[in-house]
Design brief:
homodimer; 159 residues; alpha+beta; 5 strands; DNA-binding; Lrp/AsnC family transcriptional regulator for asnA, asnC and gidA (chains A, B); DNA-binding (chains A, B); transcription (chains A, B); transcription regulation (chains A, B); Tscrpt_reg_AsnC/Lrp_C (chains A, B)
DNA sequence: GGTGAAAGCACCGAGTT
DNA sequence: AACTCGGTGCTTTCACC
């Protein structure tokens, strides 16, 4: 897991692409006063180094009818295998991310659902997994995403 | 927040772009046996409708030296303003997302940090916010992301 | 590691069915 | 709505710095 050396130019390229992956390389080149070929080569290198894993669309799940977010803490039975339960959890598509955690819960996951009723069904699925002792749900009343760019700037300051 | 009508073709387009936003429209057109112009028009419509909010890079934060993830539950003092505290929390760049929640905690957030020491500093920042009574931290030992595509498929089955 | 030019493609709007 | 088509502009490579 060696750290990869990124210079100021790489940061600026990532900065632009993180906001819009379809920004033409020619535009980036103009802004940074380098050639489009250079942008191309640098992006390719960052992809090869695994810094850039991929690109994805940001969709409005509310508009798709999926406005409900909940976090679910999972308590396991003493004898149960965390890995096994984690695999089962990841088979539920409405669970977007799951973490094995220290602290109160054994596993902790985020659920994206249509509404309360739908969420209930998903949580029942979680409860029914073999080895799960019980769950504890926190419903999100308001989500507030922080700008990815802000995190990047902070990271770059220190690299 | 009206639901937008997406047909099968729209789903397939999103399916491809969610994996790689730079997939040429001509490639998508070939796969779906439609013209590239149609792909273009449909993507544009989904952008205008606000279904597609934007596009972003997926970076390997571990490779950037930020392997530490924790979830922090925040308890507020009875008199404190949730909105005010939420704003303060969002000023910390290493907090990637914050939720107002029902249940145990008042606010619940995700922290991305370099290591334990760094996380400690961030959590101290949270603790120091006016109106915060105390916090409770859960450290992620293992993160397991679910495929975005899987969620989309499930959503599309029901639209 | 960067450039600039050139060839190959993709984008995207206009006009058509 | 979707198609075709053409102008414009983007990507990507390569010889040269």
């Amino acid at each position: 897991m060696a750290k990869f050396r990124l210079d100021e130019t790489d940061h600026q390229i990532l900065d632009i692409l993180i906001d819009n992956t379809r920004t033409p390389f020619t535009d980036i080149a103009k802004k940074l006063n380098i050639s489009a070929g250079t942008v191309h080569v640098r992006v390719k290198k960052m992809e090869e180094a695994g810094i850039i894993i991929g690109s994805s669309l940001t969709l409005d799940y509310k508009k798709l009818g999926y406005a409900f977010i909940a976090y679910v803490g999972v308590f396991l039975q003493k004898t149960s295998q965390t890995k096994f339960v984690l695999e089962r959890i990841n088979q539920i598509p409405f669970v977007t991310v799951a973490h094995v955690t220290t602290g109160k819960f054994n596993i902790f996951c985020k659920v994206r659902a249509k509404n309360t009723e739908h969420a209930k069904q998903i949580i029942f699925l979680l409860d029914d997994i073999e080895g799960v002792y019980r769950t504890e749900t926190m419903i999100s009343l308001e989500e507030s995403l922080n700008d990815k760019k802000r995190l990047m700037h902070s990271i770059f300051k220190e690299l």
